[in-house]
Design brief:
By secondary structure, the chain is an alpha+beta fold. It has two domains: 50 residues, no CATH class; 174 residues, OmpA-like domain (60s Ribosomal Protein L30, Chain: A, 2-Layer Sandwich), CATH 3.30.1330. 45% of the residues lie in helices and 12% in strands. It is built from eleven helices and seven strands. The strands form two sheets. Strands 1, 2, 3, 4 and 5 form a five-stranded mixed beta sheet that branches. The radius of gyration is 22 Å and the shape is elongated. The N and C termini lie far apart (71 Å). 30% of the residues are buried.
Length: 252
């Protein structure tokens, strides 16, 4: 007499707990929930792993699941928690490309604004775009918020429209970089929101002598900041709070 064998029991008996955890971290949230509840033993292994890993690591309060943990650690390892900006050249709507300019060139005769105009805007911008695109295709529930800014020299009547154009350029770059097959299968633009600030934030930043974005705001380059959201986890945790300015930047 043949007996029915539970597939999840086979997985549980063949794979060690460490490998089960590794498999779970690669699932999107729906797949993760189904896998977690496929049987009691797998559920216990994953719950124990969540508790162990999240307690051991210094994480945000909104990191609760292994997929969130996996994405958080990937972003942290890529330096995204320290630099989540995309740079633009002066008065440009195209994402800046790193060049080979020697950062040690003698620019002692230039003021800080002139120096900021001729030096690279924000290094690694295209690499960050590629990284975000890769994880958006991996996690179907991951969304991206783009806060776009102009520099303070942009005329007030066009600053917001200009910053919106920059945000939309990033949105398009995230979609257009997909290979041809994926472009026909998915459209990640529906999961990307653009929030233009014009020069409102740049004016606050430029007024702070010690702020790290000050020269970028004053020289007219501006920037776009990226915030990632996955099932309630936000990285960075609060895109509107600038700890250097010690102000909460809320939309009007």
């Amino acid at each position: 007499m043949k007996t029915k064998t539970n597939k999840s029991s086979i997985i549980e008996n063949i794979l060690p707990p460490e490998l089960l955890v590794s498999v779970a971290m690669w699932l999107d949230v729906n797949g993760y929930v189904k896998f977690q509840h496929s049987n009691q033993q797998i559920c216990k292994i994953l719950k124990d792993a969540e508790t162990t890993y999240i307690r051991q690591l210094t994480l945000q309060e909104d990191v609760h699941t292994l997929p969130q943990l996996f994405l958080f650690l990937e972003l942290k390892g890529a330096g995204f928690l320290k630099e989540n900006r995309l740079g633009f050249d002066y008065a440009s709507t195209e994402i800046a490309i790193d060049d080979d300019e020697d950062e040690n060139d003698d620019m002692s005769d230039e003021n800080s604004v002139e120096r900021a105009r001729r030096t690279p805007s924000v290094r690694g911008s295209l690499q960050r775009v590629n990284m975000i695109r890769r994880w958006m295709t991996k996690f179907p529930s991951m969304t991206v918020r783009l806060d776009s800014h102009s520099g303070i020299i942009a005329p007030s009547e066009i600053a917001e429209a200009f910053s919106r154009t920059r945000g939309m350029a990033v949105r398009s770059a995230l979609q257009s970089g997909l290979d041809e097959n994926k472009r026909s299968e998915i459209d990640i633009r529906d999961r990307i929101s653009v929030h233009p600030w014009g020069r409102r934030v740049a004016l606050l930043v430029a007024a702070e002598p010690s702020h790290p974005f000050r020269d970028l705001a004053r020289c007219g380059k501006g920037w776009v900041q990226i915030c990632v959201e996955l099932d309630g986890m936000h990285v960075p945790p609060d895109p509107f709070f600038d700890s250097d300015l010690n102000v909460c930047l809320t939309e009007s």
